[in-house]
Write a structure and sequence with these properties.
74% of the residues lie in helices and 0% in strands. By secondary structure, the chain is an all-alpha fold. The two termini are 16 Å apart.
Length: 211
């Protein structure tokens, strides 16, 4: 595997964890500090578009209004959005995508952590993807990168619909609430990353000679 491919994968793994952090844990001061640390690393180890997206993450952000806006966007009720594959694809939580995500995780020896969210939550899916990429960087087993690619293809393609739902619900609020506008901008970055990362994985898989 080339150095460029390895750097792209390392950046993709760290970017996935950064997105997972804010999606699952919110935008409080400590999470912002951790996220900025990830961004600083990626800025130092530039590795393509993934690093550029992560570098935009949380830049010049403060925790107060962002944390409140995060709660408004991802809270409970019709006025919020639910970043779960089942909800976006079926309209209900705990449907087939949740079971498929959980089965995939268990197949690769990962016991889902109890986060209060189902396994098809975007934050959990991105964290698992990061784990698979990191595992491949450690073992160089082509099957591991193939697994990461299969997972990304099956469980990240729904994020564009999530973004459309969020825009529809918060289009008016974005005009007057800078915090909500910022949170939707971050969600846009997560969606763009989810759409782009299969291409990164596919390129490495082909370089490794994987079918």
């Amino acid at each position: 595997m080339s150095e460029k491919a390895e750097a792209s994968l390392a950046a993709a793994a760290l970017t996935a964890r950064t997105h997972s952090l804010w999606l699952l844990k919110g935008l409080g001061a400590e999470n912002l500090r951790i996220a900025r640390g990830c961004c600083a690393y990626l800025a130092e180890h530039e590795a393509g578009r993934e690093a550029e997206v992560a570098g935009e993450f949380f830049r010049d952000s403060g925790s107060g209004t962002l944390d409140t806006a995060w709660a408004a966007v991802f809270g409970v009720g019709r006025g919020s959005v639910t970043p779960q594959q089942s909800v976006i694809e079926y309209g209900l939580s705990m449907e087939a995508p949740r079971d498929a995500t959980r089965d995939f995780m268990l197949r690769y020896g990962v016991t889902p952590e109890k986060t209060g969210e189902p396994e098809d939550h975007l934050g959990i899916q991105l964290e698992f993807l990061a784990l698979l990429i990191e595992r491949f960087l450690g073992n160089r087993d082509p099957e591991t990168i193939r697994a990461a690619l299969r997972f990304a293809d099956a469980h990240l393609s729904w994020t564009g619909n999530l973004m459309r739902d969020a825009r529809e619900k918060f289009q008016a609020a974005c005009v007057t609430d800078k915090g909500i506008a910022a949170v939707l901008s971050l969600l846009e970055l997560s969606s763009r990353f989810a759409e782009r990362v299969p291409g990164v994985l596919r390129a490495v898989s082909e370089e490794m000679g994987s079918p």
